[in-house]
Request: fold
Amino acid sequence: MLFVVAAEPGLRARKKQQTRERIAEAARRLFLEHGFERVTVAMVARTADVAPGTVFNYFPTKEDLFYSGLENFEVELVQAVRHRPSGESALSAFRRVVLDGTKRLAGEEVAQVIANAARIIDASPALQVREREIVARATDALARLIAEEAASDQHNLEAWVAANALMGVQRALVADVRAQILAGRQGATLAKHARSEATRAFALLETGLRDYARKPNQPR
Reply:
């Protein structure tokens, strides 16, 4: 009995993850075939062989179906800054995640996936609005985190500026990668280009933000 009880949460979590992935994959196929605006949640539910309510349990809105990966990455950026080691600047922690992310661009089929997504976004004003909302929410979260660490109201504006500068590099890189892919660049060449451009962009911030928001040593 103890063994069954201990194993159950893991099994339940795996089944939930499998259901989530099945729904997301069904949505991706439908969005690619029909475009974002013409796909309904009911269509996604039928394709994934689940009830419409199940789709909403995992993805509260249709936009969430499309942007779950982006939201996860934005959260990862903020968490990297939150959990950076003592003595490391916010810029350094943020840059590390962005540069690590460029490695994924070398993978097979990545360029086609991004190209498909870019075309869908370009054709959907609703997705364009939602993407800006996701980025704005992540930027605000990053600014609040930096301001809280400073523990002073007088640093709120500086924190907001720093967060927007850091997130601006990431968003500019996303736009550049999409443009490069649509122009035919892919694979290792794409990954190398993205890393080079990101490194150059962060270098522009290095002088002004090099020591800003350096995490203080924790008392022992």
